[in-house]
Amino acid sequence: MGVEIKIEHLTKSFGKQLIWKDVTLTVPAGEICVMLGPSGTGKSVLLKTLIGLIKPEEGSVVIEGVDIASCPEKELYEIRKLFGVLFQDGAMFGSMNLYDNVAFPLREHTKKSESEIRNIVMEKMDLVGLLGAEDKLPGEISGGMRKRAGLARALVLDPEIVLFDEPDSGLDPVRTAFLNQLIVDLNAQIDATFLIVTHDINTARTVPDNIGLLYHKHLAMFGPREMLLSSEEPVVRQFLNAQRVGPIGMSEEKDADELEAEKDQELPPLPPIPLQLEPSNGIPRRSQREPGAWCSENGVTPPPGSFAQGMSMAIGD
Ligand SMILES: Nc1ncnc2c1ncn2[C@@H]1O[C@H](COP(=O)(O)OP(=O)(O)O)[C@@H](O)[C@H]1O
Ligand SMILES: [Mg+2]
Questions:
Q1: Where are the domains of the chain?
Q2: Whether residue 12 has its Cβ less than 6 Å from ligand 1
Q3: Does any ligand 1 atom lie closer than 6 A to the CB of residue 40?
Q4: What is the Å distance from ligand 2's center to 217 Cα?
Q5: Ligand whose nearest atom lies closest to the CA of 15
Q6: In CATH, what is the architecture of 5-225?
Q7: What are 281-307's pLDDT values in tens digits?
Q8: Could you report the per-residue pLDDT of 29-44, keeping only the tens digit for each?
């Protein structure tokens, strides 16, 4: 059913370069979260910190009572078994076919027989729609298929937490749409906690239960999808709606002159909040809420046209 990740006051620097500070958020068990942020804001560093590959200077990452940031290697090794990670490029071994790539964690970390391994590998290949491609080498298949294979490998140890590092990078919009549907279907099926790092706004707007935004070396906001999509907070509003007007410039931050120049510019209205992507079998996920539930509970009027069936994306300036 997935486990919670409780992140408190996390701070990370490399030498003199501060990446982010005082990051505090709870990734709820079994839910889908998206972490957004401009390139270079430390999204990948955050994922690596969660699995203990990078040590923060301050703060804690608590999973099942263990603080990843400070626990001994032995405990870390055990906790890591809860994680499945889909790295940005799929991180496949180029000389191994997909079958051996997907079987790799089982051969490394378990004492399962080859026939047991075969059953698990075929089940996961089926889950990601790659049955029949077992003999292909990573170099022989498309980027979208490589991501699927990476996902199958991330799932073989039945993780409680799945981390995705830009699953949509390098994919065309149609492949991204298929992958997003697969992510939602998988969450419904395996009920694990999902944390997706991306800078694709369409993914962020339609897939998760919760959204976070890393910006300017801190966590600008984290909360339910409808909260961020109806937010007037300048950075959140600018990023989630892909607008030029706002504090984010070409080189991360605009200078005072630039901001002064656009002071009187009228902001375009917030676009409607789209419906959340549902599992393709029509059975709601455990953490899925009724459209508009957060808005009505919090007395927030969603932008006109929100939650309309078949609404097309209307973002950009
Ligand atoms: N191991 C490392 N040593 C030094 N600097 C690093 C290391 N890993 C990442 N960085 C730096 O941290 C910053 C954030 O990187 P990253 O997390 O990859 O950004 P994002 O994934 O948001 O695009 C970058 O400036 C990068 O150069
Ligand atoms: Mg990255």
A1: 5-225
A2: no
A3: yes
A4: 15
A5: 1
A6: 3-Layer(aba) Sandwich (3.40)
A7: 999 999 999 999 999 999 999 999 999
A8: 999 999 999 889 999 9
